[in-house]
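User: Predict the structure for this protein chain, please.
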Amino acid sequence: MNSAVKRENTLKAIFNKEETRPTAFDIHRWIEEGLRIKDTEIQAIQLVGKQNAVYIKLTNKISYEHYLQQHTGSSSVKLMNGDNVTVNITPADEEVVMVRVLNIPPEVSNERIRNVLQNYGKVQHIENEKWSSKFRCNVYTGIRITHMVLNKVIPSSIVIAGHEAYVTYPGQELTCFSCGSTAHIRQACPNRNIKAPVTIQSRTRLTLSDLIPSPSVSTAAATTTMTSVSSENGTDSLSEKQPSTGISDTKLVQESN
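Assistant: Here is the predicted structure, written as structure tokens:
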């Protein structure tokens, strides 16, 4: 693409693909009446159907710069059948890329999308993509098509109005969906498997086990108590010969008293 011969002194007019396509008569009439360009100032009018565009080559640089300053940007063209269509005029020597922005709700305006994409180049105009007329509902798909001149790579995933948008365009350099790096893809992202540290908090509430000792602890405590009582009453020899065993120990203490 870099080796392609650039157009000189040429205006590029892009018509909205989702609207009525103008005829050759519509275009000639628009150039004469809408743009008010004299035929003596025009060297060529070239129609490129694949791009839905018209290239208007002027005879000299002075005329080109004059009409470029007057007509750059979007405007409306009324066709002979009464329909109004949108057209956007740009310099033809700029390499315009069609950037598709996906997964953004319809509530997010094209202006907000423009504000974000301007960080990556010059945005010429944005249009809303529609489902083909082959489908039952010929409504918008939610995808925004942005015509822009890039000056740096747009990551595959960017945030617009708090939503994660996926971005695609011809010749796009693949980037990681996780961190935006061009060195790897998401599956190999070194930041993907990093787990957040786990914080262990101390208990702030008592449980049943805190209030009621376990049976093993109760038995050991009872044994110690019985032995102490027996020692005070001079029955150490009896406690040594017959270890404490719950209820029987209590009877022994009572008999010794």
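Confidence is low (pLDDT under 50) at residues 198-204, 217-257.
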